[in-house]
Write the structure tokens for this entry.
Amino acid sequence: MQCRRNRVASFLFSSKMAKSCCCLAAALALLAIVSVPCSSFRVGRSSSSSFVRRRGTQFVLDGSPFLFNGFNAYWLMHVAAEPAERPKVSEVLRAAAAAGLTVGRAWAFSDGGDRALQLSPGVYDERVFQGLDFVIAEAQKNGVRLILSLANNYKDFGGRAQYVEWAREAGVAVNGEDDFYTNPVVRGYYKNHVQKVLTRVNKFTNVTYKDDPTILAWELINEPRCQEDYSGKTVNAWVQEMASYCKSVDERHMVEIGMEGFYGDSMPEKKQYNPGYQVGTDYITSNLIEEIDFSTIHAYPDVWLPGQNEEARTRFVQRWLRSHWDDAGKTLKKPLVFSEFGKSKKDPGYSEHARDVYLDAVFSGVYDLARIGDGSLGGGLVWQLMAQGMESYYDGYEIVLAQDAAARAVLSRQSRLMSVLARTMKVAVADEKEVGRFAPRGGRGTRRERNGLHRGVAPMEKPPSAPSPPPSTTFVQADAATFKELVQRLTGHHEPQHRRSPPNSPSVDAARLSGVKRLHERRRGGGGCSRLKLSVHKPAAAGPASKPAGTAAAAEEEVGHKEVIVVNEEEEEQAIKERRFYLHPSPRSSTRMPQPNLLPLFPLTSPKAGEQ
């Protein structure tokens, strides 16, 4: 994007429940709710010292799926170049981490001009480089990973135009900005910059950039475009050369292009998804290059579709996202990142509410596609976060978390949902391997077999001779509202709040009853007993040597003896009929109690529906 656009509930999932996220209700007997103090809630941070890598269509970290919610802050290095202004960088990174934003995107270029990193080809300003060092060190301190872009399509901070101008000043015969992709001298300038940045030793951490897992990926260029060749072949050749060069310097980090997602000539049928024009790139061909690890898309319907109403623009973004997600899983077989989106205050009729509705629509799409695509949509990066006192940098899209409680709530909610989803997927991966041992063909089984409950098919069962191991338990925390929303999304159709039908409309009643029937059928399975036995794990008393709460070791120690309590299924049926939620025994229930203490669980409507 051009710069001028300038009471918390803790719940735990058994690993059995994770065999299919979509059939979460089928494992109600293995889920318990416990209360924790508000002060104990923490959004998970990516503090691992390992590199994030690609495995098929997933991002993985330490062998587990990695999903994220993130942000753009192109200006980080530019501001950090002045030591007196570095507190702004620290403020934004702390606020982002507090909101659960674990990936940020920023520029690792500034070619010529004010606070230039590269003063001329191969000549760098150490003061600005130390600004980038500071950004990476602060990101590491706050558990934020960075996507760093190495050049710009636009003239902001130099861009392609500056590279071509440098060549012209050196006596090279060049015609225009598009020579950036083809002229050997200019291409040499770019490679030198790549070498310089990737091999830089951070003055704050003493770690070479190419060895630093704080950096998630290198981006070749922000929003490449080419006016002289709309087929995308020119840009594609440049991407092939430069991606290969990046990998020759740094084999440990992922590389992505920085594309907006415009389709080109390789798949003409896909051009219908473009906003009426091409920009000289071919999204499919370029992202099929072996050295490219994941694809990206941007979306600015307010700029691309002038004159169209909000509904039309939102529909465009939804189609744009789903089309590229489909490409990622079926054609590219690589993860996808929605790396730029936002809503400008300069748009006619802008309001904070309209922005939040739009962001919720985007986030719902990201979450839903990440869920049904087994993590093939890794996450989204909103454009853009800024610190207080940065009015001169405002481009209309700015979000200052310290001053914007509404945006902070929207972003935090998405972060929690993506974090919980990643943890449930982590368990699912382990279980799929276990299920795969009994697949008919000796492999992991087909998607239909692995997701049998979602398809309305009974799940595969292990042979009687293979005893089931005791269920391992993963502890996950989220606030009550997030938990309810998560369950709603995992167990039924979800729509953004602004598109839901009125609570008492016939369509809503039908959906609720359908959800009741679907959940009930899954819960019953093949059984017909009138009373349901559920085992509850009672926490063991904490001893003097107990582990800190929230750690894996503590989770193992918290499981004590089991007591079997009985829930009257007729009472549960009545609750489903009258109040549209299941009843589930509280962990505090005991066989010594006349009746178990029942908790309402899994509402069949969104918690926000009653507020309309």
Q: What stands out?
A: The chain has 16 helices and 20 strands. The domain at 67-403 is CATH 3.20.20.80 (TIM Barrel). The first strand starts at residue 8 and ends at 14.
